[in-house]
Amino acid sequence: MDLEKSREQPSGEGCLVVALRMPVRIVVLVLVVPVRMVWDALVVVGRFLGDTVFRPLGRALAWVGRAVFVWPFVALWRWVLVPLGRALRWLGTVLVVVPAGWLYRTVLTPLGHALAWLGHRLLVVPSVWLYRWVLTPVGYALAWCGRGLFALVSLLVAGVATALDWTFRVLVWWPAYAVWRWVLAPVGRVLAVVAREVGAALGHAWRIAGYVSLAVGRALAAFFRWTVVEPARWVYRTVLTPVGHVVRDWVLRPVAEAARSVGRVTRDTLRSVRVTVRQVRQDVRRALLGESKKSDGQDDRILLTKR
């Protein structure tokens, strides 16, 4: 697509653009490919850490922050500060607002009216007379003198400004305009072309580096799969599983059966030994003490039941 766009562009770009485009794109591509691969790896690691570490940690910290900071302050605001504020507002209304309103209505308002009347008689009337018969004629005279002085100063300032303007034009403006037009503008156009091509090369190289990074990642994944995962799966499926079945069928099961048989034989032997010892003990007891037939019958029944 980039090649087609470059072909569709008009041919009036100039030799400088054509000469700079391919070297700049090659150099930028070589520099950008490792950066893009590192960037993609960091993006993958960042997403993994964000999903497995930072997001649960953030939720836990948010819950702890609410439990430690928000909920206590909410409870303090709701159950302490709000009732205290209402009580203080009521006290302020009773102790300050009501007395202040009464003082304003009954004392300060009549006093203010009296002072306003006395200020009008002592200040406003003399001030109006002074302004009308003294300050107004003096102001007219000063204004006429000021207009004349302003005209004179304006003529002087206009002459000085005209001289400074021509001096500025001859010494600063015309040389600066010549330098801008014949030196800085061509250099700026060349630098603009170079910057534009470098920017286009960076975008082109960034996109190519993305494809290269994707291809390298897929190649590494395929290499890991075919060198580690598939051989391990094949070994497990074709070697370890049959060997495990053989060991289970030909070793573990016979050993378990033999162990169970030995356990049964051992239990039967121990039971026979206990019965024999009990009979011998009963015979010795009968030989020495001579027990009754009832006990002998009970012992026989016990022996038969245990057998």
Question: What's the average pLDDT?
Answer: 80
Order of helices and strands: HHH
Distance between the termini: 95 Å
How can the largest sheet be summarized?
none
Task: Estimate the global geometry from the Cα principal axes.
Answer: flat
How many independent structural domains? 1
Strand content: under 5%
Number of helices: 3
The helicity comes to over 70%
Total E-strand runs: 0
SS-derived structural category: mainly alpha
Uncertain parts: 1-12
Q: What Rg, in angstroms, do the CA atoms define? A: 55 Å
Protein name: Integral membrane protein
Keywords: Membrane, Transmembrane, Transmembrane helix
Organism: Streptomyces thermocarboxydus
Transmembrane segments: 26-49, 61-81, 87-104, 116-135, 141-164, 208-228
How is the secondary structure organized here?
Blueprint: H1 2-8, H2 15-288, H3 293-306
Summarize the structure.
This is Integral membrane protein. Helices cover 96% and strands 0% of the residues.
Overview of the structural elements:
- Keywords: Membrane, Transmembrane, Transmembrane helix.
- The chain crosses the membrane at residues 26-49, 61-81, 87-104, 116-135, 141-164, 208-228.
- This is Integral membrane protein.
- The structure is a single chain.
- The chain has 307 residues and is mostly helical.
- The protein has one domain (31-306).
- It is built from three helices and no strands.
- It has helices at residues 2-8, 15-288, 293-306.
- The longest helix has 274 residues, at 15-288.
- The chain is flat, with a radius of gyration of 55 Å.
- The protein starts with a helix and ends with a helix.
- The model is unreliable at 1-12 (pLDDT under 50).
